[in-house]
Amino acid sequence: MGKMLLRRDDDTHARLRMLPLERHLNPMGTIHGGVIMALIDISLFTTWRVLTDNPVGGAVTVELNNHFVGPGTLEQPIDSVGEIVRETGRMVFLRGQVEQEQGPVASFSGIIRKASA
Hints:
Elements: E1 4-8, E2 14-18, H1 33-52, E3 60-68, E4 78-87, E5 91-100, E6 103-113
Antiparallel strand pairs: 1-2, 2-4, 3-6, 4-5, 5-6
């Protein structure tokens, strides 16, 4: 995936930034959907970690829903901005948006199952 940067935007949002490279492009010259899905999956865990300071080791993705809404380009960083919708004893429910300067690229929701004790 290459270099990624993580920051907490505020009390409810975390931002995972990826710097696209040529290898992330599909034959049409836009960021491959699989790369965007990988960014989203990683951002589920980084969002949970940054916003709660909980250890994420051993947790797994149970569900990941994605809607592509625009192309990602090579010229700009691409950000996944996530938030926690709800956290229970065993699950974390999250949602967010992948965006670039020109607008949204994808919207997503996902569920993480926490590691067993």
